[in-house]
Amino acid sequence: GGFVLVPAMLYILGMSASVVVGTSLYQILFVTMATTMMHALTTKAVDILLAALLLIGSVTGAQLGARFAQKVSPVRLRLVLAVIVLLIAMRLAVGLGYRPDEIYTVMPL
Q1: Which of 24, 45, 26 is nearest to 36 (CA)?
Q2: Rounded distance between C-alpha atoms, residue 13 and residue 6, angstroms
Q3: Distance (Å, rounded) from C-alpha 37 to C-alpha 81?
């Protein structure tokens, strides 16, 4: 997903940050729609209210993020992305050794 695609488009393909943001959002839109529809049709377990709230938040966040990306220099945007990726990688590394007592236990941040 975006966790792999965005850094790949930025650092391997050398695309500009503004193009990467738009491409990532476009890709996420269709993957999310297809996944939600398949889940809704196969399990009939999609909460419509939750889906609507997530949709509103996603659209609002995408608009704000796109505007933010246009106002920030590409170098600074790449730096922020690199920091976020490193923080997520560290969080995932910490979680590798975690064994929950129960199957549905959530690890605290």
Answers
A1: 45
A2: 10
A3: 30
Q: How far apart are CA 58 and CA 10, in angstroms?
A: 22
pLDDT in tens, 17-38: 778 877 887 888 888 888 888 8
Residue 44 within a domain: yes
Q: Which residue bears the tokens 């990726």?
A: 85
Average pLDDT over residues 88-105: 80
Reduce the secondary structure of the chain to three states and give it as a string: CHHHHHHHHHHHCCCCHHHHHHHHHHHHHHHHHHHHHHHHHHHCCCCHHHHHHHHHHHHHHHHHHHHHHHHCCHHHHHHHHHHHHHHHHHHHHHHCCCCCCCCCCCCCC
Range of the domain at 69: 2-73
Q: Report whether pLDDT(59) > 70.
A: yes
Specify if 10 maps to a domain. Answer: yes
- 49 to 55, 97, 109: CA distances (angstroms): 10, 35, 27
